[in-house]
Amino acid sequence: MASRGRRGGAPAREDEPRREERAEQQAPAPQGPVLPPPPPVDYGVFMQSLVQAMQTQAHTQAALQAQLDAQWQAMQDTVAGLTQALQNVVQAGNQAAAARNGAGDLH
Length: 107
Known about the structure:
Blueprint: H1 19-25, H2 43-106
Region (Disordered): 1-42
């Protein structure tokens, strides 16, 4: 039986393009207008802008951290105040109960 193509494992000849190369050669031409090249980049200005953006981010992060710390401290102060108030209420309730029990024992 005669074989077709190169399925038997025979390598391609040097003067024949490989399948990948043929695919690259057959790529469709770009459609639409050809755009001009981008303008040159001034890397000094780019770096200066990058540094400025990083500094702004650092300042913003520091301000947000300070605000968060202040809110956290205020919340801790509120919790401490509520805890103290609750302890005072419990202590007053215990004293009132003790007074009632003590007064009840006298009768």
